[in-house]
Write a structure and sequence with these properties.
about 270 residues; alpha+beta; five-stranded antiparallel β-sheet; 8 helices
């Protein structure tokens, strides 16, 4: 990459603010002089593209992890919905699989209305059964969802409302990156088509104004080579947070890019 390079620090805060969010990701990466001098709107678009590029599977997983960490806690649920044979839509019938989940949500909302329970928030990834070039069925339709737990909504009721086969509802676990692992798991199968849906009203991760002056290229290179597992180094950089993982990447342009994943120990397992 020709020309002078700068280093940008871009936070993605998964909560109300830096001081209280239970989880945060930080991108530290080299940028061009043009990106450094760009408008505030262009900088915002670049920050969003880091974790929301619809054509980049890894970016989508990052955004899903951030979205879940922003909106759900360990009191909420992880839900898997599978089909019994007599209810399984035909391979390739994605519309029917989508209707099945939509009808499940309608039944859930009616149940909540009947019992005076607030409608839950949710995120769902549906994995579809498709056909390959030889007409062979690939996979089975099923749904993975993360769903909030408003007062009075118990997992047995959620499971009973599915009615199409097996429903498994479990408490979310935010320890040791398990939510990130769940995000990776439910988007992992490249053979099958998937659709990601979410309820209204979910909060997006916050992307505050980037900082283009906190890092030099020399400091980035040192962190890239020597500080990937140095918890004390990152805790000093971002007080109140502790290191979960630091991921080094060399971009297609040959520049350095660190993704630093951190959590706040006192809020990580909030009830």
């Amino acid at each position: 990459m020709a020309g002078k390079l700068y280093v940008r620090e871009q936070k993605h805060i998964c909560g109300d603010d830096y001081a209280s969010a239970p989880y945060m990701e930080v991108d530290v990466f080299e940028i061009t002089a043009a990106q450094h001098k760009a408008s505030a709107r262009a900088k915002k678009e670049l920050a969003t593209s880091l974790v929301k590029d619809k054509y980049n599977e890894e970016a989508r997983r990052r955004y899903l992890n951030q979205l879940v960490s922003t909106n759900f806690t360990r009191k909420d649920y992880s839900l898997t919905l599978t089909y019994a044979g007599e209810h399984l839509p035909a391979a390739g019938d994605m519309a029917q699989a989508d209707r099945d989940f939509s009808n499940f949500i309608k039944r859930l909302y009616r149940y909540c209305d009947k019992h005076g329970i607030e409608h839950p928030k949710w995120v769902c990834v549906t994995e579809y059964s498709t056909l390959d070039e030889d007409g062979k069925r690939l996979g089975r339709h099923h749904h993975h969802a993360i769903i909030s737990r408003p007062a009075g909504l118990e997992r047995e009721a959620i499971e009973d409302l599915w009615g199409k086969g097996r429903a498994r509802c479990e408490r979310l676990d935010f320890e040791h990156g398990s939510v990130e692992g769940l995000a990776r798991y439910i988007t992992k199968n490249k053979r099958c088509k998937r659709n990601w849906r979410q309820s209204r009203g979910l909060k997006s991760p916050k992307t505050p104004r980037p900082n283009d002056s906190r890092w030099s290229r020399k400091k980035l290179k040192d962190a890239f080579e020597n500080c990937l597992e140095d918890r004390a180094f990152w805790e000093k950089k971002f007080p109140g947070y502790t290191l979960h993982r630091c991921e080094p990447h060399i971009t297609g342009a040959g520049t350095m890019h660190l993704i630093v994943k951190m959590y706040r120990p006192d809020r990580r397992n909030q009830p």
